[in-house]
User: What shape does this take?
Amino acid sequence: MNRTIRILRHALVAGLSAFAMLCLFDALSIATEQATIRPSTVPQEYVITPFGYFHPSCVQGLAENETLLYDGRVLREDGSVRTVASCTFPHFTPSGETVAEGISTQQMTAQKTTATAETSPVVSGWLEYVSTTTSTSYGEIAATWTVPPAPANYEEQTLFFFPGFEDINNVLTIVQPVLQFGASSAGGGEYWSIASWNCCVTGQAWFSGLKKVSVGDTISGKILPACSRKKFKTCTTWKIVTKDQTTGKKSTLNQINPDGQTWNWAFGAVLEVYGVRQCSDFADNSSTTLTVQLYDSNFEPIADPGWTANPAGAGVTPQCNYGLDVTDTVETLEY
Assistant: This one.
């Protein structure tokens, strides 16, 4: 209880909104439940994000009508601004290493097996992904995929599927429309859900409202400028939109990029996991396929993006049916 009070005090100092405070209560409960699947170097109260383990006060919820500013403040719909203090706590990779400043998100969450005293080795991190880069800037990425069956086995593991954008030359932030199974700092449980994410302006991880979705629903994930295409070269405001096309539910994160950020590193499909102990912890099928369209700075579809497959390493334990099937527009993550 004393630890919870201390965390909530930090949250108040950080300037969390009422919405974010509710999310923090959920995150603290989730962190306690997941304590046995995390590396021993990660404090018990730390929570799971698509960017590694964070202190709960360093994970912020954004409402649909709010915009994350380049300096970490939040612009409300009425034009007022709320200030959120920079995160002063370290955060950790899925394998339990302290994250160094300026490290890329892919490096931050690079797949490594970890073990706890209670379990055999578990998989945590970016297990397999597809990526490409450009010398200029991408204009948009749009992906669609189907919510797969729930895992046959649930032991508090977390699965993330997403495309994303990052700046390979100026690593400050990454944006991702995410499908999630299990719990993260945004909430969740033994079901699929969607949210949009950003990391790590002023050391904080940010997410839009988590929405529950159903097996078989069609999910779309988009990252696109909020300005007109004519103003793209000077546009700094972007939208990360995760939508359930079957039901119409959506979760949007609006942000203004930090100075100098260019989206020149694209991730067409990523499978990131936490606490996978056995192959039945994955979705109860053999693969998930994302149909992806990448656009250049003139908003023309890129016919040949030059995707590079980054498969799971041979030493991953448990060893399941890992693999990648990559074309110009269809990326299949196998497990």
